[in-house]
Amino acid sequence: MGSRYLIAFCCVLFACSAQGPTRTQPTPAETPETCASACARFRELSCEEGTPTPEGKTCEDVCTQAGAADISLDTACVVRSRSCDEARACEAQ
């Protein structure tokens, strides 16, 4: 009988201490620094994405807000791009 209590106690202890699947908070896909680098490259390439939106939001604002909404922009790809078309292809990834 004592072994049943020991097994039950161990199961309860394990259940209380074991962590279930951890749900991590979604992190913004990009940080302001990486957005700044990507936006600088968009401007160097004279891409429309580097200019403010009609509402006046900067590229950095749009990039940061997209990241916060879990919309990914491969900023490293944008920085390496040699044309606006290449940079836009990075957005679609």
Describe the structure.
The protein is mainly α. The protein has one domain (28-93). It is 57% helix and 0% strand. The chain contains five helices and no strands. It has helices spanning 2-17, 32-44, 59-68, 75-80, 84-91. Helix 2 (32-44) packs across helix 3.
Produce a short descriptive summary:
The protein has helices at residues 2-17, 32-44, 59-68, 75-80, 84-91. It is mainly alpha-helical.
Poorly predicted runs are 1-30
Task: Count the DSSP helices.
Answer: 5
**Whole-number tally of structural domains:** 1
Mean pLDDT: 74
What structural class should be given to the helix and strand makeup?
A: mainly alpha
Helix content range:
55-70%
First CA to last CA: what distance? 60 Å
Number of DSSP strands?
A: 0
Strand residue content: under 5%
Order of helices and strands: HHHHH
Shape: globular
Largest sheet: none
What value does the Rg take, in angstroms? 24 Å
Oligomer: single chain
